[in-house]
Amino acid sequence: MEFEKMIELIKTVSDSNLTQFQIEEDGFKLSMKTDKQSKVVVQKQESVPKEIQSVAMDEIKPAEQKEIKKAEGNVVKSPLVGTFYSASSPDSAPFVKVGDTVKKGQVLGIVEAMKLMNEIESEFDGVVKEIQIENEQVVEYGQPLFVIG
């Protein structure tokens, strides 16, 4: 990338409200982030063949992330990202177990997000067929938690 184009790009990003910008061209990688203290980082990137990049990325998987099962039936999903708790305290019994009969509105678990405890209520009447999450596991938005039959 030509030096004049880099300077023009840096000025444009500096004048904008962007929080992050990144471009790669001809072995150079330019990363910029604007906030109260602007930082510009320019680094030369070594070329790695595309085949090696794709194999390497396929091998990288989060250590504790479990495969999310395809749930069938009445599924209660997480309404937010956070940490799941099956009981109100470490010493308490879980809210529900597989085989328990539940009513619509009954608390099934808690998802903690930003220090707030959010009760997860059953959206269905029925029997708990599956619990697809473990205590203290991080959950994603829309992730299946319970299957009610």
Shape: elongated
Please state the structural category. alpha+beta
Strand line-up in the sheet with most strands: 4-11-9-6
**Mean pLDDT over the residues:** 77
- CATH class call of the largest domain: Mainly Beta
Order of secondary-structure elements: HEEEHEEEEEEEE
Distance between the termini: 60 Å
Contiguous runs where pLDDT drops below 50 for at least 5 residues: 60-66
The gyration radius over C-alpha positions equals 24 Å
Corresponding CATH architecture of the largest domain:
Beta Barrel
The CATH superfamily of the largest domain turns out to be: RNA polymerase II/Efflux pump adaptor protein, barrel-sandwich hybrid domain
- Helix content range of the residues, please? 10-25%
Major sheet characteristics: 4 strands, antiparallel
Number of domains: 2
β-strand percent reads 35-45%
Q: What is the number of helical segments per DSSP (H or I, 4+ residues)?
A: 2
Give me the count of strands. Answer: 11
Domain Lipoyl-binding: 73-149
Protein name: Biotin carboxyl carrier protein of acetyl-CoA carboxylase
Pfam families: Biotin_lipoyl
Keywords: Biotin, Fatty acid biosynthesis, Fatty acid metabolism, Lipid biosynthesis, Lipid metabolism
Features:
149 residues; alpha+beta; OB fold (Dihydrolipoamide Acetyltransferase, E2P); four-stranded antiparallel β-sheet; elongated
Describe this structure in words.
With 149 residues, this protein is an alpha+beta fold. It folds into two domains: 57 residues, no CATH class; 75 residues, Beta Barrel (OB fold (Dihydrolipoamide Acetyltransferase, E2P)), CATH 2.40.50.100. The chain contains two helices and eleven strands; from the N terminus they run H-E-E-E-H-E-E-E-E-E-E-E-E. The radius of gyration is 24 Å and the shape is elongated.
